[in-house]
Amino acid sequence: MHYPRHEFPIKEMDFVRAGEASLQVKKILREMKAENDLVRRATIACYEAEINAVVYGRDGVMSLEVDDEGIYIYVEDKGDGIPDIEQAMMEGFSTATEEIREMGFGAGMGLPNIMKNADEFTISSAVGEGTRLKIIFRSGWTTEEA
Amino acid sequence: MTLADVVQRLELKVLSGSELLEREVTGGYTGDLLSDVMANADTGQVWITLQAHINIVAVGVLRELTGIILIKDRTPDEATLTKAKQENVPILQSDRPAFEISGLLFNLLNE
């Protein structure tokens, strides 16, 4: 079965729209009758990835691809990149400014939350170029035709 | 218990979503870190927080929360209320601190 690819732009420091890309992904997963737990996990991971792109990413794109085997979410941004990914993955580590922290972001929970909720998660980053996340969900994904 | 019951018993002010108060409240979650709420709040719960900026609406929609209670008279700006109306997220307000609201709601839901 063929599924269309979707792309949603993410704007730097736009907290009015932050979450819209995740909401679109969630709506599509619901329309595809994905089971509730999968929708919940994907929603949490998307929101975290989207907020990271809003705060650190200087614009980005969230893409959704689906096939019979799983759901693939890519989030790419054009931010400063992450010099030490291992450190960035540690719960509680954050480089967020005081202003961002006061809004309840920057608690160092984002990347760990993505890791916890995804079935597969890879992150690659180049300093000065940007960061790319690949978040895959397989568990609980069955197509109606299957 | 409906959101309307919670509003009445906890003496909350309804800032948005007055037409959505028939929604069922299944529980509550208290927290000011958005990642924590995303990860740990559940569908149908009300979220008790001091955060009053526009992105609380996104969290409310994405986690399908029944409503958001702002503590200690925290007041959202017009853009936040407009967004909350668009997205059907009731925003309620109390002059009490988080500890009191959480305790009162906990007892109410366990009556």
List the helices and strands and how they pair.
The complex is a heterodimer of chains A (146) and B (111).
Chain A (H helix, E strand, L loop, with lengths): L5 E5 L9 H12 L4 H21 L3 E8 L2 E8 L7 H4 L9 H5 L7 H8 L2 E7 L3 E8 L9
Antiparallel strand pairs in A: 1-2, 2-3, 3-5, 4-5
Chain B lengths: L2 H7 L3 E4 L10 E4 L3 H7 L4 E5 L5 H8 L4 E4 L7 H9 L4 E3 L4 H12 L2
Parallel strand pairs in B: 2-3, 3-4, 4-5
Antiparallel strand pairs in B: 1-5
Give your account of this protein's structure.
The complex is a heterodimer of chains A (146) and B (111). Chain A is α+β, with helices and mostly antiparallel strands. Chain A is built from five helices and five strands, in the order E-H-H-E-E-H-H-H-E-E. A five-stranded antiparallel sheet of chain A has the order 1-2-3-5-4, covered by helices on one side. In chain A, a hairpin with a 3-residue loop joins strand 4 and strand 5 (130-137). The longest helix of chain A is centred in the first third of the chain and has 21 residues, at 36-56. Chain A is globular. The longest helix of chain B has 12 residues, at 98-109. Chain B has helices spanning 3-9, 34-40, 55-62, 78-86, 98-109, and strands at 13-16, 27-30, 45-49, 67-70, 91-93. Chain B has one domain: Udp-n-acetylmuramoylalanyl-d-glutamate--2,6- Diaminopimelate Ligase, Chain: A, domain 1. Chain B has 111 residues and is of the alpha/beta class. The interface between A and B is medium-sized, with 23 and 21 residues.
Briefly summarize what is shown.
The complex is a heterodimer of chains A (146) and B (111). Chain A has 146 residues and is an alpha+beta fold.
Fill in the CATH topology of chain B. Answer: Udp-n-acetylmuramoylalanyl-d-glutamate--2,6- Diaminopimelate Ligase, Chain: A, domain 1
- The number of E-state strands of chain B comes to 5
Low-confidence stretches of chain A: none
Q: Segments of chain B where pLDDT lies below 50 for 5+ residues?
A: none
Measured as a percent range, the helix fraction of chain A is 25-40%
